[in-house]
Each structure stands twice: as C-alpha cells, then as structure tokens.
Amino acid sequence: MSVAGRKRWLLAALLLPLVWLAAKALLWGLGANPIEAITRFLGDWALRLLILTLAITPAARLVPGLGVLRSYRRMMGLAAFFYALAHVSSYVGLDQFFDWGEIGRDIAKRTYITVGMTVFLLLLPLAVTSTDAMVRRLGGRNWKRLHRLVFPAAILACLHYFMMVKVKFGIEPALYALAVAVLLAARLVWALRGASRLGERVRP
Ligand code: HEM
Q1: Which atom of ligand 1 is found nearest the CA of 176?
Q2: Considering the domain boundaries, does residue 204 fall inside one?
C-alpha cells in the first residue's frame, strides 16, 4: 500500500476515539456528568497521542524497519493537537458556557488549569508551523528548535493530569509520566552522545 493510502487508514484510526465517544453517548450515555466525561476523554486522547508522537523517533531509531513511521509523525502530532483543541473547546464551551471572565479567573486561580493553558499555548505554534511551507519559511534548523517545545509540553501535560487526580491515586497518570520520562531520557542520552562525538571530531 502507498504512503498516501496508509495515511488515509491512519486518519480513520485517529478518528476512532471520537466515533467511540459518540457511540457511547448515544447507546449507553456518559454517566452522571457527561460534560466532565467528554472533557476528560478528549484530554486523555490528547496526551496519549502526544506521547505516541514522541515515541516515533526513538522507535524509528531503535527498531530496524520502523524508519517508515517518521512519515506519520506530523499527522500524529496534528491529531494530538486536534484532541487538545477539542478538549479545551469542551471546557470553554460546554463546561464554562464561554464565560470568559470565569475562564480567566479559573486560569489565574486553579493551578492545573494554568498548566493546561500553558501546554496548549506550547502546542499551538507547533501546529501552526506544521506545514511544508512553514518549515521552508523558518528554515530546518529554527523549525527543529521550535519543535523542541513538544518536550516541555509533554512534561507539563503529565503535570496537568497529576494535579487533577492528586486526591485519588491513579495508575494512568503515573504510566503516562513514566512513558514521557523514558522517551525524554532516550533523547537526552542521544543528544549527549552526539555532542561528545562532535567534540572528539573537533579536538585536534
Ligand atoms: C487551556 C488549556 C486546558 C484547559 C483549560 C484544560 C482543562 C481541563 C479540565 C477542566 C480537566 C478536568 C475535566 C473535569 O474533571 O471536568 C482536564 C483534564 C485533563 N486534561 Fe486538560 N486542559 C487544558 C489543556 C490540556 C492539554 C493541552 C492536554 C494534553 C495535551 C490536557 C490533558 C488533560 C488530561 C490528560 C486530563 C485528565 C483526563 C482524565 O481525568 O482522564 N489538557 N483539563
């Protein structure tokens, strides 16, 4: 199958959580607090897809034959952003009924909301600059530098989740934080190795 064909299948797969949410809402209901259920569901998928996007480069480097995954990284990243946008929209529209004053107070008062907002603001420039034209405009080097924002975004997204569930211990936020820690550690090791190799080459 061609890359374009595979991308169509991937797009369909990335929309499946939304189909599941709609089916659940129609067939079984979303429980006592459907707005909370929708916001949480979308937030979960935003974080999961962000982590999967981060995992692509290490997987492609470590497992022979998985280099092809790199072609799907942009799509995965955009899907993570799409779910984050839907999550924020659910909070703004369904939870707060577009009451901007209340939203502003929430951002200032509740630290986990402030952190969530920061994550969203970190992801926004990455989504905006994801087109080929923007890569060319920024130049590969600057584009790469800018896209390193995905690392603090992933750390803060885990923190946002942890801060929310701190009253009840949850295995899920711990697993996400562990995955992010492992993926960032792998990147750090590679970056340090690369820098020391460069140093060896530069030394006379
Ligand atoms: C303006 C930005 C954001 C706001 C205002 C916000 C708000 C919220 C709120 C209110 C909840 C709790 C839902 C409830 O219990 O009713 C929540 C949960 C969550 N959010 Fe966000 N969020 C933001 C950004 C993000 C982003 C960018 C991500 C991920 C990339 C994210 C991931 C999550 C996760 C994983 C949860 C926990 C879901 C669960 O309990 O299963 N949030 N957020």
Answers
A1: 35
A2: no
User: Is residue 93 situated within a structural domain?
Assistant: yes
pLDDT tens-digit series, residues 117-154: 999 999 999 999 999 999 999 998 999 999 999 999 99
Q: Which residue range forms the structural domain that includes residue 47?
A: 3-194
When pLDDT is averaged across residues 71-96 and rounded to a whole number, the result is: 97
54-67: pLDDT as tens digits: 999 999 999 988 88
Rg (CA), the chain: 19
With the CA atoms of 137, 139, 59 and 184 taken in that order, what torsion angle do they form, in degrees rounded to the nearest 10? -110
Q: Which amino acid belongs to residue 93?
A: G
Q: Whose CA is nearest to atom 6 of ligand 1?
A: 116
Total number of domains in the chain: 1
Best residue for ligand 1 mutational test, from 39, 47, 87, 98 (most atoms within 8 Å of Cβ): 87
What is the 131 CA–ligand 1 centroid distance (Å)? 26
Q: Is 201 within a domain?
A: no
